[in-house]
């Protein structure tokens, strides 16, 4: 096992695990290059990814957006990722491109359990699958892949299997990403609200305009909120 951080770490991915570990290794002394298929944190509000990208680049992290790998190879102590514009070489490679439910070998179709296009088990808010007596919870399901969601879902599944009636409401689910600046989210984005027909407006406050953050010397970042238009 290596005792020292890699000299140059290549990170494939732009979501939660990718951004958290990319910044951690940069601060441990590695040179870090990130290759993201689209943008950073592409499933969140675009302003979050843009702000995090600016913060990362200010620390020296190289970020290549809209850059999926064409091929990856390993020769001795060097990893090479081929992209449209050439090659990126490093002595370590971190693949953080997401997780897929490992359900292929479970023959769920024979049991009548419905899965989505990714192989995730489709559950309702009570953790029940399409088969009334079968429940599922965690990253094998179509719910958000967060440890606190899995824990809450598992508890409700156990309650319901024993005759209870516990539901998991995720419409205002909080989420946190452990970067610097930190990312915290709850509820819908403006785009998601408008897609559901809500007449929503958003407001953003940059933290360099907030007295407390300026006094603490931590004025990077922004706070945003959305609300429904009242007639």
Word description of this protein:
There is one protein chain. The chain has 231 residues and is an alpha/beta fold. It has helices at residues 16-27, 46-59, 108-111, 147-161, 190-195, 211-216, and strands spanning 8-12, 31-35, 62-64, 71-75, 78-83, 86-90, 92-95, 174-177, 183-186, 200-206, 222-228. The chain has 3 domains: 8-95, 3-Layer(bba) Sandwich (FAD/NAD(P)-binding domain), CATH 3.50.50; 104-161, FAD/NAD(P)-binding domain; 188-228, no CATH class. 25% of the residues lie in helices and 24% in strands. The strands form 4 sheets. It has a 4-stranded parallel β-sheet. It has a 3-stranded antiparallel β-sheet with strand order 4-5-6, with no helix packed on it. It has a two-stranded antiparallel sheet with strand order 8-9. A hairpin with a 2-residue loop joins β4 and β5 (78-83). The protein is globular and about 55 Å long. The N and C termini lie far apart (63 Å). The model has no long low-confidence stretch (mean pLDDT 89).
């Amino acid at each position: 096992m290596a005792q020292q951080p890699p000299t140059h770490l290549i990170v494939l991915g732009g979501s939660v695990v990718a951004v958290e570990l990319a910044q951690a290794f940069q601060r441990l002394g590695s040179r870090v290059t990130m290759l993201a298929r689209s943008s950073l944190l592409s499933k969140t509000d675009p302003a979050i990814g843009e702000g995090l990208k600016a913060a990362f680049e200010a620390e020296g992290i190289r970020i290549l957006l809209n850059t999926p790998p064409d091929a990856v190879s390993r020769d001795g102590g060097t990893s090479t990722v081929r992209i449209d514009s050439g090659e990126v070489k490093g002595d370590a490679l971190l693949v953080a491109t997401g997780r897929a439910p490992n359900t292929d070998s479970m023959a769920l179709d024979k049991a009548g359990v419905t899965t989505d296009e990714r192989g995730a088990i489709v559950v309702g808010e009570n953790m029940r699958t399409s088969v009334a007596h079968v429940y599922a919870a965690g990253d094998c399901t179509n719910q958000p892949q967060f440890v606190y969601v899995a824990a809450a879902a598992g508890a409700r599944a156990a309650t319901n299997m024993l005759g209870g009636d516990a539901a998991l409401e995720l419409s205002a689910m909080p989420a946190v990403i452990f970067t610097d600046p930190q990312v915290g989210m709850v509820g819908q984005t403006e785009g998601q609200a408008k897609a559901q027909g809500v007449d929503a407006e958003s407001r953003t406050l940059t933290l360099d305009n907030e007295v407390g953050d300026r006094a603490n010397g931590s004025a990077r970042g922004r706070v945003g909120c959305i609300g429904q238009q009242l007639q």
